[in-house]
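[[Encoded backbone]]
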Amino acid sequence: MNKIINKDLNEVINYINFNLKHKPIIIVGMMATGKSAIGRMLAKSLNRNFFDIDQNIEDRYHIKIYEIFEKYGEEKFRDIEHEEIKKIDSKSNNIISTGGGAFTFKRNYSILNKIGLTIWLNTNQKTIIKRLKKNINNRPLLKDVDLETYVGSLLIKRSPLYSKANLTVISNNYSKIEMRNKVLLEIKKYLVENNNVKNY
């Protein structure tokens, strides 16, 4: 797949930029699915700005996400998160990564689906757990959690909500470059299938 797409990658990129002007691309899905990493790569390839909702919150309030949960509770964080989502410029070309729980609330996914092209990076439980274990020191709230039970439960609960995204891309066992290429191809395919295209 990589050799085939790399040959025509510039054409795919030009196609997307021509047909998806003034509309953000929004990456959703579980933690440890590569939303931020792939989002940054997409932004670089498409020559767009990248924003991470969680990072924006941390920068704005000068506090880590897990500290908001610990000090003020999830409800307070979700209100802050919702306000951040409401600030997204619907006319921008930005690539935006959301937190794992953001798209599981109707008040959020209704906005995100309306203003942008939403993409669910759908990753299986085994892959998510493997990635979390490698990076567990950066996720203090998960240190004493049974990851298999926790992730499995979240996937059952959240997958039907993530599936409300405009586009679903399976993201198991791909390198970052392969995943970036796959997402670009799927975006182009989505635009063609939905007749939301122009000649260029």
In short: The mean pLDDT is 92.
